[in-house]
Amino acid sequence: INAEYMGSFGDDLPAQRREIPRACQELQRDMKSAMCAIGSYCDHDRFLHQTNSRMTTNIGIVQNTLNRLSASGGGDFPESQLSAMLYSALRPAEVGWRSTSTPIYLRVMIVISDATFHIGSRNNGDGIQNGREDYPAVHQVKAALD
Hints:
Elements: E1 2-4, H1 13-30, E2 36-41, E3 50-56, H2 59-68, H3 81-90, H4 92-95, E4 111-112, H5 138-145
Parallel strand pairs: 1-2, 1-4
Antiparallel strand pairs: 2-3
Helix pairs in contact: 1-2, 3-5
């Protein structure tokens, strides 16, 4: 689950802290091996994306992670959802994705936001964030998720 943590999202944090663990529990009721990871994204003024907790079946870890996150910053309307999706896809060890060769395995990424996304053009899609790169383009995210 990748969620926005810009200042405009501050009033939504209580709902996230309540509903995300509940959603993870519901998934685990239906699929015993379901795991959740928490990622957050902002914008260039703070960070494009970070993995806050790896995949886990422990709802307490999910809840504690959410409780530590805070919203701040902003100033423009679009955010870095595409960056969050790209970096989550390109960093399987950091996120804790299971091997794609595992039979009957489905990866699901949920992105939570209240804004549109930045459209980028100068991102090489290597999964490394640095100051010389812009936000990724939609085709880069699609390729990383395929």
